[in-house]
Amino acid sequence: MAFIELKNIRKKYENNADYTVHDFNLDIEKGEFIVFVGPSGCGKSTTLRMIAGLEDITEGDLMIGGERMNDRPPKDRQVAMVFQSYALFPFLTVYDNIGFGLKIRKEDKQARDEKIRRASGILGLDNYLDKKPGDLSGGQKQRVALGRAIVNQAPVFLMDEPLSNLDAKLRGQMREEIVHLHREVGATTIYVTHDQIEAMTMGDRIVVLKDGHIMQVGTPEEIYNNPANAFVASFIGTPPMNFVQGDIHDGCLHMKDGQRLCDVTDDVAARNSQVTVGIRPETVEFAKHADQGVAATVERAELLGADYNLYVNIDGSRVIIRRGVADGPFQEGDQLNLTFPLEALYLFDQQTGARL
């Protein structure tokens, strides 16, 4: 039995004609770090809030530790939540903010002090315990919010986009700290984000959501290398996967301008003559000879340090490719001949987006 079970969970708001979350089914093992990722409005935060007890569950069952939680108030669900906003009391010190929940529950002063100082030690806040939130940076405030979750010793941590208010460099540092904290404390963590980099670097497993539906569940490697559909393929990856229109006939895959790309297997050839071809930017190669490959024109070249992102035009379709600096320099107007290795191509149904 999984530690957390979401069984056919649905959410429908009173004035909405349709469900916000549809048939959400997921088993989460004890100690896992699960990331819900998807665009705004996909239902990820709503699902998290249903787990926390901040939103009612319209249909389905939520089980934590084998017990049904649908009708339990938040305080009885043994979960600790960290929000996008730090929600700190400005008139309290860091010490008192971290220990606020313990004080409300009238926990013994010595035990409370031990828990607060253990949390501050884990989070590097020992030198800030006497300061007020107004004296702290954004990263320090988020650490205080995490400390408040730690001292409650809840077996489940729920985090709703906790890093979205931080700058890019600090987000990178805090990603490492949260993963370290997860391992140190040993809690089961469910983390919501719209940032696929956070999802790929933090999660043991990723749940990709769209319009309230689960698109795919898997490890970061599974999601990246074997996307179930075009949406997952487009959402996970930086730069994102390229999509161009293809045509299958005579057992071969062709570009829409007729240029032949590669042979295809018999089962793919029999499915559909029109397909969407997915190409990861880093898998595109340069042809060895000028008369080979697909002709492309560089429209923009972005130097990112060790790599270039090249935005190229192929028969009216814009494609991004990634190449190392050793292959450059590149500039607007450069003419390239590109090849696409068969094993690196993804084929999707044009109508449904399903992977072929």
From TrEMBL:
Extract the GO molecular function terms from the UniProt entry: ATP binding
UniProt-listed CDD domains: ABC_MalK_N
Residues annotated as domain ABC transporter: 4-236
Gene3D superfamilies in UniProt: 2.40.50.100, Nucleic acid-binding proteins, P-loop containing nucleotide triphosphate hydrolases
Translocase among keywords: yes
- Which UniProt key words apply to this protein? ATP-binding, Cell membrane, Membrane, Nucleotide-binding, Translocase, Transport
Q: Is Membrane included in the keywords of this UniProt record? A: yes
For this protein, the record's InterPro entries field holds: AAA+_ATPase, ABC_transporter-like_ATP-bd, ABC_transporter-like_CS, ABC_transpr_MalK-like, ABC_transpr_MalK/UgpC-like, Mo/tungstate-bd_C_term_dom, NA-bd_OB-fold, P-loop_NTPase
Q: What is this protein called?
A: ABC transporter ATP-binding protein
Organism ancestry: Bacteria, Bacillati, Bacillota, Clostridia, Eubacteriales
